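Re: folding output
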Amino acid sequence: MSAAQADIDAALLLLDRLGVSPADLHRAARDRRQTPTFAEYVPVVADAVGNGSRRAYSSYWKRLAETWGDRRLDEVTPSEIERLAQQIKANVVSRRNARGGRSAAELFIAALRCLYKRAVADGYLTAADDPAQKVEKPRRLPSTRRAIADARLAEINQVASTTGDDPDLDTLLLRLHTETACRRGGALALLPTDLDSEQCLILLKEKGETVRWQPVSPTLMRHLLRHIGERQASPSTPVLRYRDGRPISRRRYDHLWERVGRVLPWVTTQQISTHWLRHTTLTWVERQFGYAVAQAYAGHMGGDVSVTATYVRATLHEVAAALAALTGEAHPLAPSTTSGPVAVGQAVPVRERC
C-alpha cells in the first residue's frame, strides 16, 4: 500500500467516525464558492435591518462595498479588518466633539459584526469563521453629556420662545423632551392616536422597538392637542409638524440648537443637544425619587445588571408622581397628596396665546 493510499484510508476512517461523507465535503466546498461578495450582500443586509441600524451603519457598509466590493465575505481576515478600522479612525472628519476617531472605529466594527451575524444566520459561513468577532471593538468612552443647570435651561427656553420662525413649535419640542425625557425618535414617531388625553399619557415608540406609556402634564397634553388641531395632523401622521402641515424631521432639532447656540455661545461650545434634556430630567428624577423610578421614567426596563431591579420596578403611578413634582401640576395617575419641589419644570414654559 502506498503512502498516499494510506493517508486516504486514514482520512476516510476519520470522516466515517465524524459522520461526514466525501459528498458532504464536496457540497460544502460548492456552497462556500457561492458565498456572496460585499457588493452583493451589503444591500441584502441594509434591506433587512431596522431604520436605526440602517441609519447608523449605512456609511460604513458603503465603505465596505467600495473597498472590498468584489471580495467574498469569507475572504477577509481579521488583520484586514483592523487595518481598515485604523484607516477610518485616522481619516475621520474632525469636529469639536470628536474623540480621535474612536467612535467611528467602534461603529465600523459594529456595522461589520451586524453584517457577518446575518451572513452566519443565512448559512454562508459558520460563527467560528466570522472574522469580525475576532477583532476587538474600541471601548466606548464615558459620555460628556450631563444635566443642564436650571438657570441655563431657562436661558435656552427663553431664546427658543423669542427667536426663530416658529417659537410655538420649538417650545413645544423642549417641553415635550424635558417632561418625558424621550429621545428624538420617540417624539418624531408620536401619532395623534398615541395620546390618551383623559389620563394624560402618550405612547412612546423608541429605539430597540420599545413601547411605553409616559405621563405628561395636563398643560403639555393641552398644547399637543392644540398643535394637532391647528396643524391638521390626521390620526396616522406624526403629531409634530410645521405650520404648513409638513411633519418635522431631525433637521428641525439641528436648526433649533444652531439658533440657540448663536445667542448662547456656551451651547455651541459644549455641543448641547436634545439628549442633554434627557440627562437633565432623569438626573433630577433619580435624585428626588430614586433609581427605580428614574429607570422606569427613562424606559430602561431591561438589561439591568442587578437582579433586584426586577423586583423593585417602579409603577406608572410612581412615574406620574415624579412628573407631578417635576412640573408642579397634578396628574390623573399620581396620588393626590403628591407635592414636591418644582425645579426643571419651572424652566420649561409652553407659549400661551390669547
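--- second protein (sequence, then structure) ---
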Amino acid sequence: MKKVVCVAIIGKGNNPLFIQEFATGLTDENKLKLHYIVHCSLDIIEDKPGNTKKLSSELYLGLLYPTEDYKVYGYITNSKIKFFVVVLDTSDIKDSDFKIFFKRLQNLYINTTSNPFYKPNTKIESTKFLQEVINLAPSL
C-alpha cells in the first residue's frame, strides 16, 4: 500500500508551483479535496508564531493538519517556499524519515529551478522533475 497520497510545493506568494497526487483512481472531487487539505495546511503555516520574522535553522514543521483519512506534514525554506506531503492516516512514518524526504525534495526543487529556462515563481512543468518526485515518493 502506498503511503504518500500527494506532494505539493507552494511559492512565496502562496501560489501552487507543483501538486502531484499519487493515489490511483482519484476522482476530480477527491483531487479537489487534496488541494483543499494542502491549502488548509498553508493557513496553519501562516498562523505559526515567529514563522515570518526570522530565518530558522529548523525548516521541518512536522505534522500540520490531521484529517480523518490523511496527515499533512510540512517544510518551509528560508526563502519561504513551502513543501507539503499528504500521507495516509494509517502511516507510521518517523519524523526523521520526513526530514530526509523533504531535504531530498528541496534538492530536486533547487536543481529544477536553477535551470536558466525556468521562470522563477511559476508552475513547475518539467517531466524530469515529476519523474524524480515519483521516484522519491516511495522512500517514505
